[in-house]
Description:
mainly alpha
Amino acid sequence: MDLTHELATSNVNRAYSLAGTSIAIFTFMLIFLYPRFASGEINPLLFQLTLVVMSVATFSFAFASFYYYASSLGSRIDDAEQALYSRRGDCFWLLGCTLLFLDPSLILLSVKLLAVASLWFVLWLTYVLFVIRYFPRVETARKSSGRGAARAG
């Protein structure tokens, strides 16, 4: 098994683990916050936005897993297509992580813990700025071949 295949397999496992964790967080949010939503104790729009963010994060991890799996197919697909799938997996993984890290500030806002929510939001913005600066350096590089280069992107 080559290093690229091992990395893709590890990425599949990580992304599935994060998707499972996201589903658990989503479930616990419903268990603990839905009664407060139903009784009108928390902002209904903010609560629903929090659930939407968590849903998109979860499905981003699921899509990342699919693309990382596709990139692990090795000799069944060419190098350019393999790199394309890896890049797409990287982007979905990044979207999932970014939204997963946003969710606590939304939850804290929902339960009116403004100081802690503000601190978490500042940390999240710091993360976003860090990602904007460094993600292009760690994202899977583009590979070109005759067939795959025209479809890359």
